[in-house]
Amino acid sequence: MVREYIVSNQQRFLDELFQWLRIPSVSADSRHKEDVRKAAEFLKGKFTGAGVDKVEICETKGHPIVYAEKIIDPSLPTVLVYGHYDVQPADPLNLWDSPPFEPVIKNDKIFARGSCDDKGQVYMHVKAFEIMMKLKLLPCNVKFMVEGEEEVGSDNLGTFVKENKTKLKADIILISDTALISLDHPSITTGLRGLSYMQVEVTGPNRDLHSGVYGGAVANPVNVLCDMIASLHDENGKVTIPGFYNKVQELSKSEREAINKAPFSLDEYKKELGMEEIKGEKGYTTVERTGIRPTLDVNGIWGGYTGEGAKTVLPSKAHAKISMRLVPNQVSSEITELFTKHIESIAPPYVKVTVTAHHGGEPAVTPTDSKAFKAASTAFEEVWGKTPIPTRDGGSIPIVALFKGELGLDTVLMGFGLDSDAIHSPNEHYGVKNFVLGIETIVAFYKHFVKA
Ligand code: BES
Ligand code: MN
Ligand code: MN
User: Fold this and answer.
1) CA distance 275 to 38
2) Residue 333 Cα distances to 195, 320, 326, 401, angstroms
3) Residues 6+ apart with CB under 8 A from 213
4) Are residues 321 and 303 in contact, defined by beta-carbon separation less than 8 angstroms?
C-alpha cells in the first residue's frame, strides 16, 4: 500500500522537492538571508499540506527554525524528527556540471546543492508523514524541528532546545542526515564525531613588502604558518598537540573487529577519489580513521598574492582555518583550549599569532540495544531485505549530544545518503532510489517503533 502510494506520487514528490531545492538557502552567506527564510516558509506550507495540527516558524537570533507537530493521542509515544533546511555555499561554481540551484536528474540521481544534505532527506520525512496521514497509518505522535543554521554551527539551536523542553518532549529523536555504506549494504549510523573549528592569523611586517628588497631578512608569515601547520602531525599521522589524545576512548579488540567487519573496498575507495595512495594515522584502518579516531585538518589557507600571474610580495599576514574532528570522550571546549595554547606556544618570536575559535560540537554514540534502534533495523530488513550494519560516521551533527544532554533523549540516525554523494562539494547529488526507499523505510520505522 505504501509502496503503491510512493510509486503513483513519485513525480509529484520530486517536483515539490525540486521547488525547494531551487531556493538557495545558504546559511553562511548573508546575501541569502531572505532565501533561507523562503525555504523555511516553503517547508511550513508542505507541513500544512501534509496534515500537521500545528506548524510555526520560530524566530531565533539567526535563521528561523520550522516546528510542526501532529498529536494523535498524548498517551502514545512521540517521535521528534530533526533535520536542517539550510545548505552549504555552492562555490566553486565553475566545477558544477549543472547549476547548483537548478535541480536535474541524471543517471537516476538528483543533482543540486542540498539534494542529499539535507533537504532531500528532510523531504522524505515530510512525504512519509503525508503517506501515514493519507493512508491512516500514523501510529503515534510526531514532532518536527527543522533548523536553518546547521551548516554554520547551530548557534541558536541550543537556546531553542533549552527554552522549549516541554514543546520538544518526545520519546526518541529521528534524524536522516548521514550516509549508508551503499545501496547493497544498508547501515545505521551509531556514532558521529565532534568538532572544534579554529582560525589562526599570523602577522609579520606591518605591510606587504617587496619580496626582493626585504626577502630573506624578514619572517614571511605564510612560510611561518606552513611550518607551524606541518608540525601539527608527526610521521605516524598523529596529532602533536599535547593532551590531544588524553580523553580518547580506545576501543577493545572485539569492538574494532566489529567495526572492520563492515564491507569496505580500499581499491574502490581510492578509485572513487582518483587517488593512488591514501594516508592516515598509522595502525588504523580507513574505517577506523574516519569512525573512531580524532583528526586535524586545514580547511583553508590564504595570504599574499593569489591572483592572476605573479606578483613579488612578502605578505604581511597569513591565515588558516583548521578543524579537528573529535571522538568520545573528547570535549570540544577542552580541545579548543589545547589547540590555542599549543599554537601560541609554538609561535616564533618574529611573528604575532592570534587564534580564534569558530563553532564546535560534541561527539556522540547512539545505543544499539534500544527499542528504537531495533525498530529502525527491522524497518530496513522489511524494505531493503537486509539487516543494516551499524557504522560510525566521520561527520558531525552536534545536536545529537545536545539532545541527550538537554532532553535526555537518544537518537536514531537513519540516514540514506552515500559518501559518494558529494555533499559540501560541487555536483552534490542524491539517488532517486535512496529517496524513494528512504520514505518507505521511515514509514516502516514508525510501525515497528510503536508495535515493539
Ligand atoms: N549531514 C552532515 C554531517 C554528516 C555527513 C554526518 C555525513 C555523517 C555523514 C552535516 O550537515 C554537516 O555537514 N555537519 C558539519 C558540522 C557542523 C557543525 C558545521 C560537519 O560535519 O562538518
Ligand atoms: Mn547535514
Ligand atoms: Mn552538511
Assistant:
1) 40
2) 10, 19, 11, 14
3) none
4) no
Q: At residue 261, does pLDDT exceed 80?
A: yes
Q: Which residue has the cell 518507505?
A: 440
**Under 8 Å between Cβ of 70 and 126:** no
Mean pLDDT of the chain: 97
Instruction: Provide the 3-class DSSP secondary structure of residue 276.
Output: coil
Cβ–ligand 1 contact at 153 (below 6 Å):
yes
Residue 116 pLDDT more than 90?
yes
Q: Residue 176 is placed in which grid cell? A: 536522516
Check pocket membership of 177 for ligand 1, CB cut-off 6 A: yes
Neighbours of ion ligand 2 (CB under 5 A): 117-118, 177
| Predicted pLDDT at 156 | 96
Q: At what angle do helices 119-134 and 33-50 cross, to 10 degrees?
A: 20
Cβ–ligand 1 contact at 191 (below 6 Å): no
The answer to whether residue 69 scores a pLDDT higher than 90 is: yes
Cα separation, 41 vs 21, in Å, equals 13
> How far is the centre of ligand 1, averaged over its atoms, from the C-alpha of 397 (Å)?
6
Give the residue among 111, 98, 82, 137 at the shortest CA–CA distance from 14. 111
∠ CA 394-172-36, nearest 5°, is 65
Q: Residues 313-325: what's their mean pLDDT?
A: 98
Distance CA 84, CA 152 (A): 11
Q: Is the Cβ–Cβ distance between 210 and 385 less than 8 Å? A: no
> Best substitution site from 86, 118, 151, 365 to test ligand 1's pocket, by max atoms within 8 Å of Cβ?
151
146: closest CA among 123, 164, 127, 171? 123
Q: Is 285 helix (H, G, I), strand (E, B) or coil?
A: coil
CA distance 180 to 187: 5
- Alpha-carbon distance of 269 to 418, in angstroms, equals 13
What are the start-end ranges of the E strands in 231-285?
none
39 lines ligand 1 (CB under 6 A): no
Nearest CA to ligand 1 atom 1: 177
Q: What is the pLDDT of residue 452?
A: 73
Q: How far apart are the first and last CA of the chain?
A: 21
Q: How confident is the model at residue 437 (pLDDT cuts 50, 70, 90)?
A: very high
Residue 426, exposed/middle/buried by CB under 10 A (0-12, 13-18, 19+)? middle
User: Which residue(s) pair with 32 in the sheet?
Assistant: none
| Residue recorded with cell 618574529 | 350
Q: What is the pLDDT of residues 300-309, one digit of tens each?
A: 999 999 999 9
- How far is it, in rounded angstroms, from Cα 62 to Cα 359? 14
